[in-house]
Write a structure and sequence with these properties.
The protein is about 70% helix and about 0% strand. With about 475 residues, it is mostly helical. The chain is globular and about 55 Å long. The two termini are about 30 Å apart.
């Protein structure tokens, strides 16, 4: 299904016996001294401890349900990347318009905020497995309609918007469901890390695969692959995960009423909590500024007179750095140390972009981008703080909103970088993004410290919102 969030709800069911016993989170998680970490929680389906417990990423793969989620994520993500490339080519073939071709890509980001805000209530109101499967089937149906030769270009773009609007609901639901599958401790953090690594890798592999497919298939033939991947993802989630009850009912914490009312109410409650809001912004703002060099990779390669292959290297360098750092932090550092590095790494993660101030050549630019990508590894520990801060009954909506906001700010960051490059040299725009982003990150780090558990009263934390923090 689309790229990365929450888990919906309905009537309780008796879940079948787990396919495999899951290992318990490492003992270090219980004693996090960092002021940013919250209380250690364990979900009802959290893995039980046992002898010879595997550690690190191996422990996550030991959970049968996670293996199904992981495989479904890999398949659907590859399908999405292939379809994005193929649909862009198809629209260009039909219209000959570079604008409409570029708009096809942009429409993959813009509807996120709509779907993530207006339909976030789905993630808590209905059972997670049902939501995930239905989202995959809806996306498969939308992509299947794209295969019909009579579908006009306007219809193709509308279907692209619909798939993108479904994406944050799916991703938020999946993020929240992981707390049921893996518990709310270290296994959840490592599971989220693995899904992020897959997302980064799929971008590298998917575009290459799509390019190869387009040499032997028509654009619509390549899009057919996406239909198959969505259907396979739906089957894996339907038969590889347990059917758990909804987190809330239609008359739950939203006070009843329509889905739209519940979604907007959830957004108000989440953003009205000072702690949750600070953590969300720490996810969002660094991501908004770090995309500048990728958005301007083509003009920068041209400005330094780099060979044609340089563009691909500039686009891949940040992902390579992110994957390497995430693997190291997830496998080599204890939960305690992952928590300790969150604020320092978040504060300095954008500083490598300052190298662009000297208009570096290709090797130095690639090194700076790899370091900037590695700086994103702070989100491993931040994931734990976020799940600790959000009450269970709001978790689906919070994670849907988190995903929608993340995709939206990245799209906004790319647009602003492009706009700034109309008035300033590209290398100055990238360096400026590093400076402004670092200032914002430092302000957010201070706010996260101020909102750490025990640092403020309950009234300060709620900012007047009528949320019951005792339900956490």
């Amino acid at each position: 299904m689309p790229t990365d969030s929450p888990a919906p709800a309905d009537t309780p069911r008796t879940p079948p016996a787990p396919a495999a016993q899951s290992p318990a989170p490492p003992p270090e998680r219980a004693a996090l001294p960092d002021p940013g970490s919250g209380p250690t929680l364990r979900g009802p389906d959290a893995p039980k401890s046992g002898p010879a417990t595997p550690r690190g990423y191996r422990a996550v793969f030991a959970v049968a349900e996670f293996r199904a989620v992981f495989a479904a994520h890999l398949l659907s993500l590859l399908g999405v990347v292939v379809s994005e490339l193929a649909l862009t080519v198809l629209v260009y073939d039909l219209t000959g318009s570079p604008l409409l071709s570029a708009l096809t890509f942009a429409l993959g980001l813009l509807p996120y905020i709509v779907g993530g805000t207006l339909f976030a209530g789905v993630a808590d109101r209905y059972p997670a497995r049902r939501v995930l499967v239905v989202c995959d089937l809806l996306c498969a149906a939308c992509v299947a309609v794209m295969l019909v030769p009579a579908t006009p270009v306007a219809g193709l773009l509308a279907l692209r918007c619909l798939v993108a609007a479904i994406a944050p609901v799916f991703t938020g639901t999946r993020m929240a469901a992981l707390t049921d599958i893996l518990g709310e401790g270290d296994l959840y953090v490592l599971g989220r890390s693995l899904l992020r690594i897959v997302s980064q890798s799929a971008m590298l592999i998917g575009f290459g695969t799509g390019g190869v497919l387009l040499t032997v298939l028509s654009p619509r033939g390549a899009i057919t692959v996406t239909v198959v991947t969505f259907l396979c993802s739906a089957a894996l989630l339907r038969f590889g995960t347990q059917d758990r009850p909804a987190r809330t009912t239609a008359t739950g914490d939203g006070g009843g009423g329509t889905l739209l009312k519940e979604s907007l109410s959830g957004a108000r409650l989440v953003l009205g909590d000072r702690r949750i809001r600070a953590l969300m912004l720490l996810f969002w703002l660094p991501a908004m500024f770090v995309v500048a060099p990728e958005a301007l990779a083509a003009p920068y390669a041209d400005a330094i007179g780099a060979p044609p292959a340089a563009l691909g290297l500039l686009l891949c360098a940040m992902a390579v750095g992110h994957i390497g750092a995430e693997l190291f932090v997830g496998s080599a550092l204890s939960p305690r140390n992952r928590s300790r590095i969150v604020l320092p790494v978040a504060a300095v993660g954008l500083l490598p972009l300052l190298v662009y101030a000297v208009r570096p050549g290709l090797p130095l630019a690639l090194a700076a981008l790899a370091l900037a990508g590695a700086g994103a590894a702070y989100v491993i520990g931040l994931d734990q703080w976020f799940v600790d801060a959000v009450p269970q009954e709001l978790r689906g909506r919070a994670m849907t909103l988190l995903t929608a906001g993340l995709m939206t700010v990245q799209g906004l960051g790319m647009a602003l970088a492009g706009l700034a490059a109309e008035f300033f040299p590209v290398h100055q725009v990238v360096a400026g993004s590093g400076i402004i982003g670092t200032v914002c990150a430092l302000l957010l780090v201070a706010e996260v410290r101020r909102t750490a558990p025990g640092q403020m009263s309950d009234t300060e934390g709620r900012d007047g919102a009528d949320r019951h923090v005792t339900s956490r």
